């Protein structure tokens, strides 16, 4: 993690714009704004631009609003969470934590949740600019996600717990403990309804990353463990796995089709995994090398920090500390395209729900400690089917084994 990151304490909330996000409900206006933006970009011959008023320190997460590409939520090490109006290229709202914010998520188009080093979980009403301290963890909150199928917020922390939260109303329904020893020192404790926290699951390792897939929760922890839970019944672990990659897990994201997940590591590798435990399906899993550069005949290996799925095509983008973004076809096992090199490490990626837009956070992650580095930035890119849609010929490159690299067959000409 970013231990060397200096925490900066900036000013308080930006201007109070009541009803800022109420306009989201005016769908025709939203799509009109987006269309006009892309028309302006096409007139200049560009399909990408950089957001204004970006955070003053490292960018930890970018998330699009669930029903539009107009609004983007950004969390940062400068202790803020910011809401951007993407077509207008302007920051519409900013609220603050008392420490670096490590993750954020939309609950619905008008409510944001966030957590970080201050160990506090906040919910912010983006219409009224009012915030509510929902609860917290006993250590920094690393992950914040929303599961619409079960209607719960999920948080993962370095205190070795995952918590489920009711986003609708606080409740206190009692406490239920169900210890279960698994894989050595792993325990499961379930707590229902304490300070709006529906359930608490205790691990033996820090939570590094998590992703929801329908009613399933996929958690990546220290020690290269991967745990699969049923969010409707957190009393036991559905599947206990060890990462197929040899080094520390950096990111996990679930397939939109709910069949599996993609896992990345600090050692320039990505694994494509399937949830169905049957031997026939497990034969389909594979891993490959990526985000590696040869300089003077020496291979430089970079962490793969970010993964984001295209909700329509089930392809996915990866971002690494090499500054590149690649888009992969997991079915035909090949790279669809590679974008130009960004100024510094790719810290976070997010496709919009309709798959037309990709948010790219270029932010130094202190891989080389505290050195002079390029300015952090957020880039908004319009993507096409040619860059994100699998080829229909189902050609298999045959180079997707764990010790081989997927070779590109079509590389984007965009600079």
From TrEMBL:
Which GO BP terms, alphabetically?
cell division; chromosome segregation; meiotic cell cycle
**What are the start and end residues of each WD repeat?**
134-166, 304-329
State the compartments where it is located: Chromosome, Centromere, Kinetochore; Nucleus
Query: What domain of life does the UniProt record list for this protein's source?
Result: Eukaryota
SUPFAM superfamilies named in the record: WD40 repeat-like
InterPro entries per the UniProt record, alphabetical: WD40/YVTN_repeat-like_dom_sf (IPR015943), WD40_PAC1 (IPR020472), WD40_repeat_dom_sf (IPR036322), WD40_rpt (IPR001680)
Q: Which UniProt keywords apply?
A: Cell cycle, Cell division, Centromere, Chromosome, Chromosome partition, Kinetochore, Meiosis, Mitosis, Nucleus, Repeat, WD repeat
An example Gene Ontology cellular component term from the record?
kinetochore
- Which is one Pfam family of this protein? WD40
What PANTHER family does the record tag this protein with?
MRNA EXPORT FACTOR AND BUB3
Q: Which family does it belong to?
A: Belongs to the WD repeat BUB3 family.
Protein name from the UniProt record: Mitotic checkpoint protein BUB3
Q: What is the lineage of its organism?
A: Eukaryota, Metazoa, Chordata, Craniata, Vertebrata
